[in-house]
């Protein structure tokens, strides 16, 4: 599941967002995924992914994930979070 989530964020998010433990977001307005839980509850991201994330940085593309994809993405992002 984690590998699938990582693959999904690498394809859909890595152009702008840092998707690993130490990389830096290439877009100045894009959060590093490992820091998302500092700004949002990860469960809140489930709904956003299901409906299509249309907020964030101004040029963020809208992408709607399937329930299985959402589960994998949230699991992966959760694995990155630092206490």
From TrEMBL:
**Keywords per UniProt:** Heme, Iron, Metal-binding
InterPro entries xrefs? Cyt_c-like_dom, Cyt_c-like_dom_sf
Cytochrome c domain residues are 1-81
- Give the residue range of the signal peptide: none
Q: Work out whether the entry's keyword set contains Magnesium.
A: no
Note whether rRNA processing occurs among the keywords.
no
SUPFAM superfamilies given for it?
A: Cytochrome c
Give the top-rank taxon of the lineage listed in the UniProt record for this protein. Bacteria
Q: Which Pfam families match?
A: Cytochrome_CBB3
| PROSITE patterns in the cross-refs | CYTC
Q: What is this protein called?
A: Cytochrome c
Source organism per UniProt: Mesorhizobium onobrychidis
């Amino acid at each position: 599941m984690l590998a699938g989530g990582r693959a999904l964020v690498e394809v859909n998010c890595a152009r702008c967002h840092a998707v690993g433990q130490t990389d830096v977001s290439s877009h100045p307005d894009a959060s590093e995924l490992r820091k998302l839980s500092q700004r949002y509850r990860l469960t809140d991201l489930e709904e956003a992914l299901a409906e299509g994330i249309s907020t964030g940085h101004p040029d963020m593309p809208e992408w709607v994930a399937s329930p299985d994809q959402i589960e994998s993405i949230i699991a992966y992002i959760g694995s990155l979070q630092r206490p």
